[in-house]
Amino acid sequence: MTQNAQQVAGLLLAAGGGRRLGGRPKALLEHRGRPLVEYAVGVLRAAGCARVHVVLGAEAAAVRERAELGDCVLVENPGWADGMGSSLRAGLDSLTGTGAGAALVSLVDQPGIGAEAVGRVLAACTSRESLVSAAYDGVRGHPVLFGAAHWAGIAATATGDRGARAYLKAHEEAITLVECGDVAEPYDIDTAADLEHLE
Questions:
Q1: CA 57, 104, 73, 71 torsion-angle sign
Q2: What is the pLDDT of residues 107-149, one digit of tens each?
Q3: In whole angstroms, what is the distance from residue 102 CA to residue 184 CA?
Q4: Can you tell me the distance from the alpha carbon of 106 to that of 79, in angstroms, rounded to the nearest whole number?
């Protein structure tokens, strides 16, 4: 997928309200001196995503104000409280008609997954039919890459906090797993105890 029309767009899901963090939006948590959302965009760019769409939700206005998201397309998801599924649908919808051949989906609360792992997933994309997932010791994780041929099917099944889980389960045999356990740690920043992972 080297031609421009087939480019892979980065899709960062950053809408969560951080319910288990006392309502602190994950996008605004500090990591290496900047908001986490800004760091996560930098990872996507470093991995080779020229186009990055960021789905915002909780305190979207504050995120816009405090994070430098320059060239990103910012997508507001008014239904963010319904869970990750609605953010994934909003993000895929924003990519429709852009000419992107695939979406590389990453989560704002996984700073242990850097550009090397993202780049490996990106490199495994071969067409609009591709389904690629990072794996950690053989277990599927993030980021995941969805060729455009799958977007409608994923959007139709993405509900609640399940995201694309149901779709991926139904198409398991089509997924290319890319081992990333040697270069990344797939922890989530979900609770106060997890904040120790931030620098």
A1: positive
A2: 999 999 999 999 999 999 999 999 999 999 999 999 999 999 9
A3: 22
A4: 19
CA distance 50 to 9: 7
Nearest CA to 92 out of 47, 49, 150 is that of: 150
Let me know: does 128 contact 6? Beta carbons within 8 Å. yes
Of 10, 181, 186, the closest CA to residue 109 belongs to 186
* pLDDT exceeds 60 at position 4: no
How many angstroms separate the CA atoms of 63 and 61, rounded? 5
Cα(159)–Cα(145) distance, integer angstroms: 18
Residue 132 makes CB contacts below 8 A (sequence gap 6+) with 121, 124, 125, 144, 145, 175, 176, 177, 178
**Cβ atoms 112, 143 nearer than 8 A:** no
- Residue whose structure tokens are 């277990």: 139
Which residues, 6 or more positions from 19, have their beta carbon under 8 angstroms from its beta carbon?
none
b/e code 157-166 from CB counts within 10 Å (16+ = b): bbbeebbbbb
Q: Which tokens belong to 198? A: 């931030």
**Residue 162: is its pLDDT beyond 80?**
no
H helical segments located in the chain: 36-47, 60-66, 84-95, 115-123, 151-157, 165-170
